[in-house]
User: What shape does this take?
Amino acid sequence: MTDHAAISFWLETAGDDLTPRPPLDGSAEVDVAILGAGLTGLWTAWYLRRRDPSLRILVVEREIAGFGASGRNGAWCAPDLNISLARLARLHGENAARRMQQATYDAVVEVGRACREAGIDGGFHKGGEISVARGPHGVPSLEAAYAEYERFGFGDRYRLVDATTLGERIRIAGAVRGLIGDDAAVVHPGRLVRGLARAVEREGVRIVEGTPVTGFRPRDVEGKATMATPSGDVRAPVIVLAGEAYLTELRPLHRQLLPLWSLIVLTEPLDDAQWAAIGWAGREVVDSTRLSVDYLSRTEDGRILFGGRGAPYRFGSPIHPAYDHHEPTFDRLRTFVREWFPALADVSFTHAWGGPLGMPRDWHPTIAFDAPSGIATARGYTGHGVSATNLAGRTLTDLITGERSELTELPVVNHRSRNWELEPFRWIGIRYVQRALERLDDSAARSGRPPSGRSLAERIASH
Ligand SMILES: Cc1cc2nc3c(=O)[nH]c(=O)nc-3n(C[C@H](O)[C@H](O)[C@H](O)COP(=O)(O)OP(=O)(O)OC[C@H]3O[C@@H](n4cnc5c(N)ncnc54)[C@H](O)[C@@H]3O)c2cc1C
Assistant: This one.
């Protein structure tokens, strides 16, 4: 049996009984059936029941609530998507890009508000966000990010600061500039997702665990869509596919997303002298300009979480618990902690874990409902889902209940990404980009010159 507490520090410290809820016993007929008890599935259940308390909602989870990325993430609840404002504007127009960005600010605020309303102690703390340039090579990218916010009318939410001002917030070796925003929050992902599961149950939603969905079918002549499970079919006018990276295991969706691992290391709680050397009293979420991605947060009990990519994509997109651990990447992340914070040269690390992100071919998330088939989904957050899942839950509620709103007009609504390439092209392409981005980061750090932005890997990655 899976030791669910061992999956992440967050599940270990969620303060909840992780014993799986009873599985589905037989078949079921409900109004809305949801695959997946992560944040997407649970926020959708929450807002649907608030809209219509008479709805019979069943959440079908293969493992336990919070088993996926929602119980493993880097604790960033930030106003961002995995797609730039400039690209949203190119695809959907400037106004749509602006509305989308505003919706992400609102989503962070709403996570905090809904947690209070639902009585969830999700550790929500709005400390803001800091991006740092660790060396002159990072400065152009920070300046470009700031210029983009200004162009879309959000410049007053951010400040470009020099090393001295940055050092008043956090002291990071080699940091020469910072971009500070006030809108991001940090959460306790385990308490958030497990608390939300308890909250939706209090609202009358049923969650079954240990129950895999093995297939799905669109509405039949009776207007019922179906999710198949080993114990029987779940039929409902609306089914919601909220399994993010794991959706790739369902044949019709296999090439819609690509499972890409993000990994995390966690230090022991630091002592007062170590914190005095580092600062970071505001518990902002922090990252740098590295192309191959890093993200940091400070836990309530005084640890540093350092996350990043680097684990290799596997041929054929398989998902296996063994891939949650990749020692070379963990080692690299531990080295980063010591490089960023020299006062931590001797720090111990107590936890290391990871999980798959769901990455669409065009890096573009989607929140969709197809009324004729009765199939809804929200997916493709690629590592930016903690606030976006809340937005997805509210948007799916409007779409499913047929309510036109500002949310249903957002450019992510009903977006369809094209499929990933067949193997071996998928593997060749992804491994090339992964390696090239790491090389570009290393060479920029060595030379002090920024990546050109014109290399093939950068153009693919900023796609
Ligand atoms: C290591 C890591 C760090 C991250 N850091 C951040 C961060 O700091 N900030 C941020 O915004 N985002 C981050 N993300 C991304 C974010 O966590 C996700 O985008 C978000 O949690 C997705 O939620 P979800 O509910 O859609 O999917 P998940 O949380 O993955 O939930 C899907 C659920 O569906 C279940 N399921 C799947 N298939 C089936 C099936 N066939 N039958 C039944 N059940 C099934 C799974 O068991 C799982 O519980 C990170 C992700 C990872 C992996």
About this structure: The longest strand covers residues 349-360. The two ends are 41 Å apart (CA to CA). The chain is about 30% helix and 20% strand. The longest helix spans residues 94-118.
